[in-house]
Design brief:
The protein has about 230 residues and is of the alpha/beta class. It is about 45% helix and about 15% strand. The chain is built from ten helices and eight strands. The chain has a six-stranded parallel beta sheet, with helices on both faces. It has a two-stranded antiparallel ribbon with strand order 2-3. The longest helix has 19 residues.
Length: about 230
Amino acid sequence: MTLSLPSRTTHVLLDLDGTLTDSAPGIIASLRTGFTNAGFDVPSDDVLRTFVGPPLGASMTGIGLSDVDATAVIAAYRSDFEVHGMFDNSVIPGMPEALAEVREAGLTLLVATAKPEHYARQIVEHFGLDGYLEGGLDGVHGAAAESAGLVQGKEVVVERAVAHAVALGADVAQVVMVGDREHDVHAAAHHGVPTVGVTWGYAAPGELETAGAAAIATTPEELRKLLTS
């Protein structure tokens, strides 16, 4: 069942990879290095692109790696990502302006990402996005660092972000998720929160609609209008 957007949105949970930033170049490059250094064949770029957004452990096991092998690849990936890949990344054009206007309209913004929280906070700070968030970096909710055998799904992150919004005075019925992949939509729906899907991220054609996104934005300006109308 597709959830509907509230008549008035007060709190917004923002995905990071593919929604606020184009992080694919650095992630894919570090994944190539990770597979190589761990002694495995490197999947195609099309496959690696599907890794951007969801928890890494789930993506690794999804292509058939055992927990032990996936953990080895993730460790090698992170060694490269921390040095090279993390900031091979850029803010989506038009997004800072949209965030500023949404904030000026009185909405509260938080980040909810499946990326490990310690990475997410560094990226948000590096690009100056913390200035748009309630509480600055305290408004960034990410996953606990996971191995293949301990996958913290997006549902857990959204649960914490929703709890933060409620602590700030939100009615859950007025909270909206913004994301670019089906797992954003499903995780938010698990908590009764509708999602605005954005098309500039990494979803396959039709993925967001099939997942049940309440609305689709093709530009940051369209997103602003959907959140503030």
